[in-house]
Amino acid sequence: xxxxxxxxxxxMAAAGVIAPWAGARxxxxxxxxxxxxxxxxxxxRLAIYEEPDPGSDVVGSxxxxxxxxxxxxxxxxGLARHNARWFRIRAGWVYSSFVQxxxxxxxRRVVQSPPRxxxxxxxxxxxxxxxxxxxxxxxxSYRLYYSSVxxxxxxARDERGKWWYRIQDDRFRDFTHWARAEHIRPIPLGEMxxxxxxxxxxxxxxxxxxxxxxxxxxxxEVRAVTCATxxxxxxxxxxxxxxxxxxxxxxxxxxRPSRHMVGSDPGRADYFDLxxxxxxxxxxxxxxxxHGAYWHNDFGRPRSHGCVNxxxxxxxxxxxxxxxxxxxxxxxxxxxxxxxxIVVE
Length: 345
Hints:
SH3 type barrels, 42% strand, 3 domains, 27 strands, mainly beta, globular
């Protein structure tokens, strides 16, 4: 996507895609050129600070799913010790843990006749509302977020001639979702092909204390990323529940390019319903996995229900690199032989 010019920015703001904030204190002439980078707010209310400092004045706020251009990133003093990064927006500074970096990459080509087995597609806009049938007036089934992955098994036009993709939900098999085709990027075969398939000596280490995931080939580090592991949740009526990531020596037990994850009961404070969780590499039979997280940007501290959250691009790398490889067309790969060890400590 080319950088947003002023006309495009004003058009998006008028449409409600970009937050219509008030009282901006920054002079537009002082801003760098608008970059090819946007941020989506991931919590109900996000404070805007005058400076990238928790002690500075709060000059406004943003609501969940508002999308704003990011002009600059800096590391100073964070709202929490694990993350010092802030994003500069037009109205001031916001804390990066609660802003998902996104793009608005609308697709020009549509796969009008998907193959019988379908193909994998990734949401390429900040979010899109999936509906029960093609058409903007149909009931919304789910809001699908940037970088989530879905199985596309059909295509159809709506009453305006716009193309929509039919999504096969892996959890609710009888429930049909349709999403705008221009909002879904088909994932090519090569993008999910195995990495270093000839290397036999592979190891993944999850350091819970440092919140780091590291991959090794023949004892040499080849990738290390910040993660978010499991933690404790205090639930009214139930007390404190242990959802920490299980320590010990594990192995890859199954893989899914996409998983609709649902946890706990709808009435509980820790309930979640997350369609299209990208690139899941499971290492316990109970369901602990390394996978992408699109619902936060809060890596560096424990916050999950036992899984190891990483940015979606890193989840894809671990998915491709770990053994055994997962065929593109397979929605689920079960492992019953040698596979990559995953050590949690």
